[in-house]
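Researcher: Please translate sequence to structure tokens.
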Amino acid sequence: METAVTDPVVGLVLEGRYHLQERLARGGMSTVYAAQDLRLHRTVAVKVMAEHLAHDPTFVDRFTREARAAAMLSHPNVVSVSDQGSDQGLVFLVMELVRGRTLRDLLQARGRLTIGEAFAVLEPVLSGLTAAHRAGIVHRDIKPENVLIGQDGVVKVADFGLARALTGTGQTSHTGGVLIGTVAYLSPEQLERGKADARSDVYAAGVVLFEMLTGHPPYGGDTPLAVAYQHVHHDMPTPSDEVPGIPWEVDELVARTTRRDPAVRPLDAGAFLADLEDVRNDLGIERVPVPTGRSNAGPGTLRPTNRPGRPRHPSDPGPADGTEVLGSTGTRPGRGSRTSMLPGMGPGPTTDVAGRRPPLEQRRPGVPQHIRRRRARFAVAVVLLLAITIGAVGWWLGSGRWTTVPQLVGKEQAAAIDLLQEAGLTPDCCEEQFSEEVAEGVVISADPDGGEAIRGTDVSLVVSKGPERFEVDPAMVGRPLDEVQAEITDSIPVVATVVQDYDNDIPVGHVTGFEPEAGTELVRDQPLTIFVSRGHEPVTIPDVIGLTPEAATTNLENLDFTVERTEGRSVDVDAGEVMAVTPGAGTQAPHESTVTIQVSVGVPQVTVPDVVGSSEADARAALEAAGLKVEVNEFFGNRVLRQSPAAGEVVDIGTQVTILVTFG
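Model: Translation complete:
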């Protein structure tokens, strides 16, 4: 009962109904408990979200909506969801409890499955996914861990909607964000754009089929990024490369469902299931029970191998009753078998009736004349042959064994070989080298390259492959700079220089073009300029001064600027019109940057200075310096007695101030 001690959640009763009794599994995002439904008196599984996710309102909202959508699914191959809620700070999901193991457990125990077993597992998975896709639900995280195999052999898909609910949490690590699913099973569109639909589930199911057939996922790597790169840039390997004997129809099924372009995959799980049934029918694959990893033969029974022997087919050679096959006849030879004659056992010499050999015919004495003439002619022929042979040997030992190596440089390969053979020399052909001067197929050099040589000597030829040329793939345009640089460094021996340039269509950091252009033939160590986008070129700020704020905003937004608005006062611009723009009109600003317009709310205002008690001249000077007009009412004297507006009032610039000048 260690779980009850170490896990404080065990023993809680959620919403007064679900009594958490045992922790079944724990992951980075949630923990699953076996619980007793006190209302219906049944055992259920309760998945409790991790605390850091339970406090994220966005996640909780999406999780709730997706849980409701998953609960709408009613299919025998989908783990049913019956309730969802939150209590005591815990966000939880109540679902069917499946006693058994995951497909991952089965693969770890078995290594890999036969084709029949793999189809037996995948068919119910696709059946459950078909129901989900037709209900508008995308799983987004199909993998062996989410395929449950009950003790009764029923296959169910778990965690519907959870991967989808995690999008939008703002997390980007391998424990959150759109890449929350295991990278080994994510489709290229999920990895590149975070987008997923039913065809993304088809891709993941195709990867699971590959793993069931081979015992491992198609791609491996030291980091998730390395695995993701292979999904995006490589075609799926074929299972038969790993497991010889897998039919090409199965290879093609895996390839068709894991195309990198989702447009050429089956439309949804239902289409995948139909293709799988077609392959089953074409190959005549018999239906087998879903492997549960449990033996039915009792204790001590050995686990079957990954490739169990198939039942004997009537067309197989050999007796059906298990009789030992010893020869091509399929039967054990007996003592009465037909006897063959051994070499040397043919009939003996002819004998007479008494068994005696007939006497030999006696030769007559002397040699016939025609035989003597024949012997004489033979003797003369032998003498002549000996003479010719001795002469030839002498010639060979003298000058005859030497020959002249012909001039080969500049000759076509075939012509050079003919010349060597005519001279009695052996062509050692051919080393190939690139050459800027010698045409393809023409001899560059020979060794030896002239003079005399003994007949039969090997002459080595070096033949031109023509000029060495390299090409930059036009498909590199639009790709990230680091990828392009790595590919050029590995395969094209040129001197590359990177130049930043504006481009209105290609994102920042992606290649916009090359100089010379992509597809042009390049020589070794030739300079190559790689142009990289700095982003959209700067945009000139239009003159919007004097326009209404609405018109100015429209003009700027049409140039993709973000417009901010402030207010100010201007002597020259009427209220309600744009009096200034920042950056200034005619200057250039980054594309999609922010431009501020200042809208006039009237002329500037000033505070009326206090001139009471001042001389008329001083008062006039102070008021005019403040931008105010002065009207003087004199009543004998030169001191200001009163002013209007009063000192300290805020008035528009140019306002008239009346002062009363009298005796002070």
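Researcher: Any highlights?
Model: DSSP finds 17 helices and 27 strands in the chain.
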